């Protein structure tokens, strides 16, 4: 498997995801949308697995490789949300976001080779990044729901906010697990659990952002609009933590988390 094969897997997976989203919007029950979406997820995972085998390492080192996992987990979270709450539009949004990130990878392919610096050869590296990517996808779905609810103010009800809350609970839980894995990895690789590296600082800010949302909702359950704004702000912090940090002067040459420089 090589990166040149990526476009064909993107086309095949995208067609399945789009067909699943259309079937959901046309109210074709729930089984057909789920089967079509899961078919695309399986095809995309086969590419990731093929890259893992050909690279002889987890495809998690470069930004492009993490975008692979994000594109994979977005429809996973979308289909889980659809099955749980039957929001027909969620598959359309998760499909759109996944295709956008695939398109970015097509336009900006990064170097994918077998080289893996010693610090990344830790057994904690793969679970740390994979758990984080799943958390990012869940919180990405929460962001999409928040934007939709702000746009459709009249449709905001307890069920809609319950979906946001549950997505944030799951996302925050996986962020916490990912941070714990990262701390263990850091201790093994660099001799300390936490160093307030620029990446770690933004990771803490992101974690606190979602914690603020949870606490606000627990004390102001009827005030939906401020809660949704907090949720959107927390997602912006997440974007800075994920890839925005690579463009900050503070991280250039100083961050131990910038591996593809």
Tell me about this structure.
- This protein is mostly helical and 261 residues long.
- It folds into 2 domains: 1-113; 121-251.
- Helices cover 72% and strands 0% of the residues.
- It has helices at 6-25, 31-55, 63-85, 90-107, 125-151, 158-190, 198-219, 224-242.
- Helix 2 packs antiparallel against helix 3 (63-85), helix 3 packs antiparallel against helix 4 and helix 5 (125-151) runs antiparallel to helix 6.
- The longest helix has 33 residues, at 158-190.
- The two termini are 25 Å apart.
- The model has no long low-confidence stretch (mean pLDDT 88).
- It is a multi-pass membrane protein.
- Residues 88-248 form the Cytochrome c assembly protein domain.
- The chain crosses the membrane at residues 6-25, 32-55, 67-83, 90-109, 129-151, 163-186, 201-216, 228-245.
- It is found in: Membrane.
Key features?
single chain, 261 residues, mainly alpha, 2 domains, 8 helices, globular
Radius of gyration, CA atoms, in whole angstroms: 19 Å
- Strand segment count: 0
Mean pLDDT: 88
Strand content: under 5%
What is the number of independent domains? 2
Stretches with pLDDT under 50, minimum 5 residues: none
Structural class: mainly alpha
